[in-house]
Fold these 3 entries.
Entry 1:
Amino acid sequence: MQKTLTPDWISVGLLSERTGVAVSALHFYERKGLIKSQRNNANHRQYPKHVIRIVSLIQVAQRTGFSLEEILLELDELPNHTRITLEDWEALGLRWQAELDRKIVQLTELKNMMSDCIGCGCLSLERCKLLNPYDELGEIGAGPRLMTE
Ligand code: FES
C-alpha cells in the first residue's frame, strides 16, 4: 500500500535517513515526548518536516552531555513548541554553553580531587574528598557537630 504523505510530512524511514538516527531511536524519542507524529490514512506514522531540525538538535544536545529529560525541558521552553528558529537556537546555544562551563568547572574540581586519591586507595569517608566531597562539617573537626544540648 502506498503511503499518503504530503510535502510537509515525512515517514519515519525518511526521518531516519535524513537525520542518521535509527528508526528505533526515533520511536524512543517519541515515547519520551521529544517528537510527535500523527498517523496517515494508511495508519503509518508521519512527522512534520520541521522534526528533522528537532532530531538534529537532540543529537547535538546528547553529544554535549545533556540527558533526554534535560532536552525535553528545553524543547518545552521553545516559544512555538514546534519549529526551531535561529533565535531559538542562539538562545539554546548560550544556555548550553553556560551549562557546559559549569560542568567543566565541576569536572576540573573532581579531576583535582582525584589527584589526591591516586596511589592512596583509602576510600575513607573522613579523608577522601571524592567519596565525601561536601563534608563541610568534617572540616571543622571530628565528632557530632549538629547536636544541641
Ligand atoms: S582514596 Fe584516599 S583520599 Fe581518596
Entry 2:
Amino acid sequence: MPLIDRAVIEKLKSTLPNLHVLTPDSVDYKKSLERSMRNTEKPAGIVVFPTSTKDVASLVSFGQDNSLDIAVRGGGHSASGASSTDGGMCIDLCKMQAVSVDTGTMHVTVQGGALWRDVYLATERFGVALVGGICGNVGVGGSALVGGYGWLTGAHGLAVDNIVEAEIVLADGSIVAASSSKNPDLYWAFRGAGPCFGIATSIVFQGYKQGFVWHGDLIFPPSALTAVAEFMNYLLRVSKGESSAILMMGMLPGMADPALVVQVYYDGTESKAKEFFAPLFKLRPMGDSTKMKSFAGTTGGGDDLPPGLGEVTSGGIMVPMDSVFLESLLKDYLAFVKLVPDASETIIAYETHPTYGILLHAQTETAFPNRGTFGNVIISARYTKEETAVACKEWCRAMHDKVHKEFVRRKMVDNVDEVTKTAVGEYINYDGLGENPERLYGVNYKKLVILKKIYDPQNVFNKCVDLLPRSDNAVVQQMN
Ligand SMILES: Cc1cc2nc3c(=O)[nH]c(=O)nc-3n(C[C@H](O)[C@H](O)[C@H](O)COP(=O)(O)OP(=O)(O)OC[C@H]3O[C@@H](n4cnc5c(N)ncnc54)[C@H](O)[C@@H]3O)c2cc1C
C-alpha cells in the first residue's frame, strides 16, 4: 500500500481543521474500510468524513493538487470495490445523510451519503415514498445515480427517472447544479453514470403519496419453479406497478436444502393482495411472512447478510420468462452449491418488477442504458474462504455468459420493441466482473465519453465504471 506522506496529511488537517480524518494508525481506521463484501475492501491511505458540500469540494481540490487517488463511499455495497482505494483518499459521505420533504411538490431532498432505510423512515412520516433500493443499507448515491430499482419501479420507473435536480462537486472542485434547465448535458449523464462525473452532495427526488403495503416472503421447494414462474409471468403481464415480486433461489438460514423464496409486494389491502397472489398460495408455500407494513418496513433483501466474500454479476431475463431456461439455471445453481460447499450461500435472484414505469422513458433519455421488457437476474456467489474465489468467479462468468447469450437470442426471436432492441441486458450496479464500458453503456456510450472529456478530462472519477476507452486512459496517465 503506498502511504500518503505525513506532510500531506498535516497540510490537509490545517486546510480543513474541523475535518474528521483517519489514517492507518487511527483506532477506527479498520472499521472505516469495511464494505458489504470483504473482498472489495482496500487499505486507503486516508479516510475523510466531510460534513458539507464545501468540505467535499475542498477535498476534491486537495486530492487533485496532491495527486491522490480518490474513492467516494456511500453505502459501501459496490460489487466491484468502487468505493475503496488502495493507498489513496477515501471520501466517506456517512456524515451527510440529511433528508427533507417538501409536502407541496412532494420533492424529497437527500444528502449524498444517505442510506435508503433512513430515507424511507424520514419520508413515511409525511405519507411519502420514492423509488429507491430494496436493501435498506444500500447507499442512495451509488444506486440512484446508476439506475435504482425498487418496489415503486413498476409504477414510476427507476430512481434516475425521479431525479429532479442534483448538487454536484466536479473533478475541478467546483460546485454545480444539474437539472433539466441547469447543465442539462450533465443532468443527462448523471442519471445513469453519476459516479463517473462527480460527487452528488445532494439529490432532489420526486416522491409519491404512499400508505401501508402488503409484503413478505413466500417459500417453496425448488420443484415449484415452473408453477411460480408461470405466476410471475402473469404478474408481469397485468401489473402496472401495484404488485411486484422478486424470485430467489438460495439456501435459507436453518435449512438443509436450497429453496425458492418469492418476495412479494402489493400496494393495497391484505385481502386484495391475497386475491391477486392466490395462485402462489394455492402452491402451498412452506413458509409465509407476508403482512401489512409501512413502506420502510419492506427494506430487507440483503440487509442481514453476514459479512463475507462475494462475486456478483447480472443479466437480463426476457419477459415472458421461459420456465425451461429458468429450470436450467436452477440445475446449474444446485450443481454449483453441491460442488463448492463453501459457496452454499450463493443465490440467483430474478427482479421481476413490472416494466411499465421503466418504459415510460426512451433508452437515450438518460444515460441509463438498460430499459426494456425484461427483468434483472442477479448471480451472487457468496463464500467464506479466499481459496474459493476462483471457482466462484469462474461460475459467475459462465452464468453471466449463459444468461447473456439467451438474452441476445430472445431479442432476435421475439418481436421486441425498439427500446428493448437497444438494451444492454445488464444492470451496471450488479457488475462485479468489470465488463467493458462500451458494452455496459451501449447506445449511450459515445455521448458519455464526449461529456466525460468535458467534465472530468483527468478521469478523477474512474472507479464505478472507467468510462474512457483504453487509449484515452493511456494519454491521461502520461499527463499525470
Ligand atoms: C445486498 C444488496 C442489495 C442491493 N439492492 C439493490 C436494489 O434494491 N436496487 C438497486 O438498484 N440496487 C441494489 N443493489 C446494487 C447497488 O445499487 C450497488 O451495489 C450500488 O453500487 C450501491 O451503492 P452504495 O452507495 O451502497 O455503494 P458504494 O460502494 O459506497 O458506492 C458505489 C459507487 O457509487 C459511488 N457513489 C456513492 N455515493 C455517491 C455520491 N453521493 N455521489 C457520487 N458517487 C457516489 C461510489 O464512489 C462508487 O463508485 C444492491 C446491492 C447489494 C449488495
Entry 3:
Amino acid sequence: MQTMIRKGYLPYCLPDITEEEINEVVDTLKSGWLAKGPKTIEFEKQFADYVGAKYAVGMNSATAALHIALCAAGVGPGDEVITTSMTFAASVNTIVHTGATPVFVDIDSNTGCIDPEQIEAKITSKTKAIVPVHYAGQACDLDRIYEIADKYNLFVSEDAAHAIFTQYKGRMIGCKPKGTVSYSFYATKNLATGEGGMLVTDDEEIANKARILVTHGMSRNAWNRYAKGGSWMYDIEEPGYKYNMFDLQAALGMVQLNRLQEMQSRRETLAKIYTSGLKDVKAITLPSIPEFTTTHSWHLFVITLNTNLISRNDFIDKLNDRNIGTSVHFIPVHQMTAYKRMLGGQILELPNTEKWFENIVSLPLYPTMTDEDVNYVVNEVKNILEGV
Ligand SMILES: Cc1ncc(COP(=O)(O)O)c(C=O)c1O
C-alpha cells in the first residue's frame, strides 16, 4: 500500500470531553463550592455503585489512592510488598513512601501482568502485601492472587489505573473487592478528570481510615466546616495527607462515568479494527487476552515487535515520521536510576519484563479517533514492516 502521509499529527492519546462535561464544570464554578463537597460525595457514591463496591474515597490521583491503601492496611518500615516492574513508577514509589521495600516479581510473558506462579517464591516473613497491576486494561488472575494472599495472610492493593470497565470472569474489577482497588482519572485514562483517582473497598475500617488520611488526618466531615451547620471544631487524628478529590473533578467525573459505556464501546470498535487489520502481520504479536479477562478496557493497545529487521525505537521513529504518536508502557521501574541506586548493584532476574520492554509499542487508541485514523495507523504499520 502506498504511503500518503497525513497532514495533522495523530496524538497517541486525547481525552474525550463534550459540551456536557464543560457545562457541568461551569455550573460547579458558579455554585460557589469548588473544594471537596457535595459533588465529590455524590461521585464517590455513584462510582462505588457502578463498580459494585461498598465504599469509594475520591482522591487527587491513583498515586494517592495506592499510597493511602497501603497506609490504611498498616504497611510500613521493615515490610516487603510484592509487585511488578512492568508498571508506571507510581505503583512502586508509593510502596517506598510507606517505608516498605518493593519486591519485584516477573510478568507473564503473554499478558504483561504479574505472573502469579512466581509470587510464592518471593514471599518472606516480612511480606505484608501484594500490588498487582491490571496492565493495559487486562485483568490479573485475581483468583490465583487472592488464593496466595489468603494462604500467607497478605493484603492486596489492586492497581486498576488502566482497568475502569475491565471484567474478570464476568465481574467488574472493583466489584466486592477483598482488598482495595485504585483507579486513575488522569487526562489519558478511560475516565478522565485531568488529575484524579478513586479508592474502592468493602472494608469499612480501611474506608474510614482512608477518608481521614486524605484530608490531613482531620476528623470526619471537616470538609463541611464552612457551610451552615458545619462546625469550626476539628481534630487531627493522624498526621495525614492532602490527597482529596474536589468538586470540579467530581463534576467532570460524573459526566464521564455516565458516558463510560459509550466511550468503552468506541474503544472496543477501534481495538477490533486494529486486530483484524494487523492479525496477519507476521512481524508483530497482538495483545493476547486470557479467558478470565472477559472484558478488556482497551486502555492501551500494546503490540510486540518480533522481528530483528527493525528495532523498536526505529519503528517508533518511522511512525512518528508518518505523523503517528505512540508510547511505550513501560520502561521497567527497576531500570530507573532511583531504583538502581536502591538496589545497590543487585541484578534482578526479571527476563520476561526486560524482554517485554525491548519490543513493545502502544498504538493510539481513544474514543475520538475516527475509523480513518485507525485504518491509517494499520496501513502505516504494514508499510513500515513490509519495507524492512
Ligand atoms: C499502572 C499505573 N498505576 C498508577 C498510575 C498513577 O496514576 P495517577 O496519575 O492518577 O496518579 C498510572 C498512571 O499513568 C499507571 O499507569
